[in-house]
Amino acid sequence: MFAIVHMSDVVRIPPNRLTHSLNEAAVQILKEKYESMISPDVGYVIMITDANPSSVGKLVAGDGATYHKVTFKALTFYPKLQEIIEGEVVEITDFGAFVRIGPTDALLHLSQITDDYLKSDVKQGVIVANQTARSLKIGSKIRARITAVSLGKGAGMGKIGITCRQPFLGAVEWVADEIKKAKAGAEQQQPQSASAKERKGGDRK
Predict the structure, then answer these.
(1) Among 8, 103, 5, 89, which Cα is nearest to 46's?
(2) Which helix (H) or strand (E) covers residue 78, if one does?
(3) At a CB cut-off of 8 Å and minimum separation 6, what does 99 contact?
(4) Are 70 and 52 in contact (CB under 8 A)?
(5) One domain for residues 90 and 72
(6) What is the CATH number of the domain that holds 120?
(7) How far apart are CA 6 and CA 8, in angstroms?
(8) Secondary structure of 118-144 as H, E, C letters
(9) Do 64 and 15 form a contact (C-beta atoms < 8 A)?
């Protein structure tokens, strides 16, 4: 899920950065340090949106820079276990597909796509189900559930696993078909229920 996170730090502002306003200098330094990082606490840091540096800084002997405490806001993406997400297939491999969710890619293993036997064609960029002929290809929009999350520190991409082997998950057109079938089944059951009630009423008379 995406979130705005409040954070704090101490930034070192060198003399050549003081040509800009203190706020602009702090924002640029924070962007260089935090954007594209992964933190086990806040997830993927996408963008620094605002910063409020203290106007009073500290000096260190032999260093011409000033050090300022700063509070700031960051747009983050933290994938949570069991969360339902939507994404786009960006790569097909022999063992499954990589799906772009937020700022990163998640692995959708062949065993987690469907119960049907699947064939992966890397050259054509498509995965096809043997019996239903359903397919996933590069550009397919899917809905999935997060089943595994491993976030490291620094600039590593981390690892996210997802599954579509549950009702109303998979390619958006698969989900649409399942919803239609579910609605049709519900409509068929309603007249039967009404007839049953009428029969019961007749028996009482």
Answers:
(1) 103
(2) none
(3) 87, 88, 89, 90, 105, 106, 107, 108, 142, 144, 162
(4) yes
(5) no
(6) 2.40.50.140
(7) 7
(8) EEEECCCCEEEECCCCCEEECCCEEEE
(9) yes
User: Phi-psi bin for 56: left (phi > 0), alpha (psi -120 to 50), beta?
Assistant: beta
- Within this chain, do residues 157 and 121 fall inside the same structural domain, yes or no? yes
One domain, residues 64 and 146: no
pLDDT per position as a tens digit, 144-195: 999 999 987 654 567 999 999 999 999 999 999 889 988 888 877 775 555 5
- SS3 at position 15: helix
* Dihedral (CA of 6, 23, 59, 11) sign: positive
> Cα-atom radius of gyration of the chain, to the nearest Å?
26
Q: How far is CA 59 from CA 51, 87, 120, 122, 172, in A?
A: 21, 48, 61, 58, 57
Range(s) of the domain holding residue 69: 2-77
Global pTM reads 0.78
